[in-house]
Amino acid sequence: MILSKMKKIILLLILTNAAVLYSAGNTANENLTKYSQRDDNYIDTESVYHEESPEYRVEEEKNVRIILETKNNDVYSAEIIYGGKTVMMRSIGNYGGKEIFTGEIPNNSTDYYFRLVDNKVKYFYGKNMVTSQNAVYKFHYEKSDSLTNVPDWSKSSVGYQIYIDSFRNGNPDNDPIFNEFGTDDFIAPTGQIRSGTQKKDLVAAQWGTGAYNTEFTVNDWNGNYETKNVWEENALNEVKNYSRYYGGDLQGIKDKLDYLKELGVEYLILSSPFYSLSNHKYDTIYFNHVDPYFGHLEQTGTNKGLDIKGKVHNKNGDKELNLLIYNSKTGKDLLDENMTDPSTWVWTDSDLELASLVKEAHKKGFKVVLEVAPDITSNRFFARMDSRYKDWYLDESDLRLDLSNKNVRDYIENSMKKWVLGPDGTFKNYSDDDGIDGIRYVYYDNKNKKYLINITESLKKYKQDLLISGEFTNKFGEDITAGVYDSGADYNIINDLTKYMINTNSNYKIGSVEFATKLNEIYNKYSSERFNATQIFADSLDTDRIYSGVINPNRVFDRNNQSNQGYLNIRPDLYDGNAVNKFKEIISVQMMLPASPVIYYGDEKGMWGADSPRNRKPMLWEDYMPYENETDDINKYKTRLRTLPENVQINEVNKTISYPVTINTEIENHYRNLLKIRKDYKELFKNGKFKVLEVYNDPKTKGRIDAEISRYLSEEKRKAKTYQGKDINPQTPNVDFITYEISNKKDSIIVVVNNSGDSYPLSLFVPKLFGFYTNQLNTREKYSISDKKINLIVKPYEVKVLHSKDTNIFDSFK
């Protein structure tokens, strides 16, 4: 009996403790992070985010797009409430644990807030988060009056960025005779130009006479990039490759306008053409004069068929380098120009060469944009050499101009006005215009950004359709809203393309869902017309070549990309048999967006290279063939030496590998095909709407596709056994794809991106009942629509560009 009672007491204690532990466990569980699930009567209010900034409020002409972030899969519905009206928001995707909602309200100044619902739970979100609608503190939106106009010609046009010194040498007479080191680092040049003038007489200078001084020479256009000229052997390691010249000039660009036209280019972006002793010209000596190395060292005395209303100094035989010498005592150069008085400025022969190029480009249908570093100067800049201008700089020890100084702004503005209006000083029509069509601000200091607004506003008055673009920061929406520029270069897209298509390490790679969501997010953070004008670069003169990036994965974009950081410089297709297909995949997406894709010179030829200076190697031209083999450090390839192709030569003595330099015609033809599609459907890319259709890793899509591929493989196995008597075991392919659509009321283009090295069948949903889609990259491929689906097979890393008429469901048959 006593034992029985003891058992009951012990049992009671156990149950009591269990109850206490259960209760404590429940309390602890309540403090744990709750997994998101729609309709579960729970909203993670800490994850809800919106701010009163252009990053979350995107102005269209008639509407403003409102962006809201929540925890992923957490909210059943989100609504915008404004002026007594309600707008339901839609989810555009998720990544990193967050979900993004957008909705549009009329573009009028107004108060607004959000209503978030999940089953029976309801919150009202403004500057606070409350459960009572009457207690919410509303957000306020004020319509901007500073937005600039976006030129119609810039919308979805194809750009081509040219680094002038490396594009084409059209006039050997202007080849550089010294560089930024100055004349006293080199002995007097030998030889003469075609006029008979000795090169040493092209500038009044003190030449070097030291035992280690050598003659400055331009590097061989078709030589091995790693081979140094004699003068480079004596230069410091960190500067020698950055200070060489190749002799490219404005005449070289003019000579290749027909090539660029045939390629499908619509506007040119020229690297800084202004006078400077560096090869890149972004550290300017004069903003109001073109560098003689790009134009003429010796003036020709001709007006180049231009109508010149202003002053001109192009006297035959005068030496331009002498004319541009600034005298701090007189406050003038030898052209008798006062830098603060534009009425004294003149047009030199080199200035006229730029205007002549612009006019010729206009005749062929191009627009021309100049890159300008509006606040960076050389230490030879006139204001740097004259104490009267000491207040022109942000800091005495810096070479940054202070644009808050009105005199500085006036000089920059008047210099740009010279190039915008051209020698005739006016704008009538594009076919006869000799002034540039756009300016691209680069490298400017953020302290000067708000003062660029004044310059932009003034320049827009001289030419209504002038494009002002910029290098986007993390706050590009604020820059656009403030009126700094119309639109600009967004590197977020190529950054995400790299993460999705190139990187393999989980620390650097993103999946298809995150990529598609980020693409959607970027698109929605612009107004439609500004996304149409956004310049999409795959690479540029400040990044490694994207073709080389394909074989140098698992990096942050534009980081760890120098040759001395282990970066592989070898021609990519010699290292990776899939390099060309991967590269084509990347540029296909770059070109098939309703934006303004920009080709960095030579990408279409299959050029490769690490970050600067190897991304600025001389352009590959057929008439310059053959090019010497290029070399790289053998130590980078130790694990691959036995598997490299036979045309890669291994030199154990010099510790180098050597490989041929060639033009890749497959890549060039792919560019031509993509640009032809953009030309054929110009209005679609200009006015079409972007929409993600399917993403493989979305659970619903993945389940359906996996089941269909499984049935396909089973059928292949059955047919092999039935008709061939063979037992096969087909491998399940690695599936990874996205599809997206660009559409208007007339046409529809669906882009199918296979981001896998395998080939496999796909049954894809399309937004039409029936009809046909035709692959514009291979028009023999036609896919019939059945029950809003098409069936196709994708090849490794293939991108299909499928077009269908969209006026009505029958137009696909035409």
Detailed description of the structure:
The protein is of the alpha/beta class and 814 residues long. Among the domains are: 45-141, Immunoglobulin-like (Sandwich), CATH 2.60.40.10; 172-247, no CATH class; 689-813, Immunoglobulin-like (Sandwich). The protein has 21 helices and 37 strands. It has an 8-stranded parallel sheet. It is globular, with a radius of gyration of 31 Å. The termini are far apart. 45% of the residues are buried.
Largest sheet: 8 strands, parallel
Please give the number of β-strands.
Answer: 37
Please give the CATH class of the domain at 689-813: Mainly Beta
User: Helix count, per DSSP?
Assistant: 21
The CA-CA distance between the termini, in Å, is: 97 Å
What is the 3D shape?
Answer: globular
Q: Label the CATH architecture of the domain at 689-813.
A: Sandwich
Q: Show unreliable segments.
A: 1-33
Q: Average pLDDT across residues? A: 93
Radius of gyration: 31 Å
Sheet with most strands: strand arrangement:
24-23-22-21-14-11-26-25
Secondary structure category: alpha/beta
What share of residues are in beta strands?
15-25%
**Helix content class:** 25-40%
Say which CATH homologous superfamily of the domain at 689-813 is assigned: Golgi alpha-mannosidase II
As for the CATH topology of the domain at 689-813, it is Immunoglobulin-like
